[in-house]
Amino acid sequence: MTGPTGTALVVVDLQNDFCAGRVAGARFGGDGAVLEAVVAHSVRAVERARHAGVEVVFVRFLGDPVHQGAAWRARDRRLGKEPKCLEGTWGAGFHGVVPAPGERVFTKRARFDAFLGGNPGPGPDRPPGEGLEEHLRASGTGHLVFAGLYADVCVDSTARTAFQKGFHITVLTDCTTSLHLPYDDVLRFMRVLYGARTTTGDDPAAWTAPADEEEPCTP
After folding, report:
1. Over the stretch 127-145, which tens digit does the pLDDT of each residue have?
2. pTM for the whole structure
């Protein structure tokens, strides 16, 4: 028995407040050149995917307090965190990438996991009732290739749910980086826990679903 074989590139949270400017610099705390390289490689990955006929799906984050639950607000107060990617601001805008006509955008409202985004009503990025999972199922997608930020936050949260829902996972190692944990450890964790394939965007194998190795069922 084989599952869906389609591949989609999932571009996670390449937004100004995560990639550039004061907010991104204060939050990342590391060498800004790392974020610049992630963006540049992700832009090339989007181009490669489009050239190969692979669907590109964009995920964005909105952190407005109105979307935050009580635990989220309490954490921010305790740690002195300011909300990021406020709707309608420069910080919420895409950085380096622009969805092409017809490419889908899914919005997370104070969520890490794109599968929890939930599109509550009609709009340019949300037909009624369709979330990320419904869209991928309808598209016959069984393999997700991840780029974007951050490997140990929203990329991991989304990949974790995707694996549990039966999707094969590939993480483009030059198209993301970590925020809180050592990057190599994060990648190793994904390989061990999700069976993730970790490679770079210029690897042709990244754009094809892994072979189905399921053993036939025996009575």
Report:
1. 445 799 999 999 999 999 9
2. 0.90
